[in-house]
C-alpha cells in the first residue's frame, strides 16, 4: 500500500483528500505544519508528499528544501499561491508538480497517480535494461538511474532522470516542448512551458560547467531543446 503525506494547515482539505485517497487504497498521513511533516517522514517510508505553501512554523518552501536534502520522493505542491513566480520557486526548490487551489480532488488524484507511476519507472530494477548512455563526460546509468559527471555521481530527481533519459538517449535530436512535456510528464501540453524551463535550468546547474553557456543542454530557439555532444 502506497503511503501519502499531506501537509496542510487546513483540516478540511486534509480530511477531504484523505477520503478520496483512501478510496483508492492509499494510506494517508496528515500534518498541519512543516515540522510535523518532517517527523512523519522520519518515522516511515512515505511514497509521495502533497504540500501546501502557507503553513505555520515551517512553510512549504522550507519543507521542500528539507525533503530534498534527504529524500527523492515525488513532491506535489497544492497551494492558493497562484502567481507564476510562486510556481517557478516551488519547482526550483525541488517540487515535481504544482496545483493551484481551489482544485478538484479528482485532478489531485490523477496527478498523484502520474507521479507514482513515474517514480516507479525511476526506481532501480536489475531486470530492466542496464545500458549506460555516454555523452561526452556524462554517463547515465539506466540500471540504477544515476548520472555521473566523470566519476562523480550527481543527485537528480525522478523528473530530471526522465528528462535526461529522453534527451541523452537521443543525442542531437531536437525535441519540441510539447514532445518533452507529454513524454516526461505523461500529460497533455497546453502551452505552459514554465515547468520544462525550470527543470532544464536545474539540470544545467548540475551537469554544465557554466549553466549560462551550456555545452550539453542546448536551447533551439523557437523549437525546443536538444542534447549535444561536448566538442
From TrEMBL:
SUPFAM superfamilies: C-terminal effector domain of the bipartite response regulators, CheY-like. The keyword Phosphoprotein applies. The keyword Transport does not apply. Keywords: DNA-binding, Phosphoprotein, Transcription, Transcription regulation, Two-component regulatory system. It comes from the Bacteria. CDD domains: REC_OmpR, trans_reg_C. PROSITE patterns: OMPR_PHOB (PS51755), RESPONSE_REGULATORY (PS50110). InterPro entries: CheY-like_superfamily, OmpR/PhoB-type_DNA-bd, Sig_transdc_resp-reg_C-effctor, Sig_transdc_resp-reg_receiver, WalR-like, WH-like_DNA-bd_sf. Residues 130-229 bind DNA. This is Stage 0 sporulation protein A homolog. It comes from Clostridium autoethanogenum.
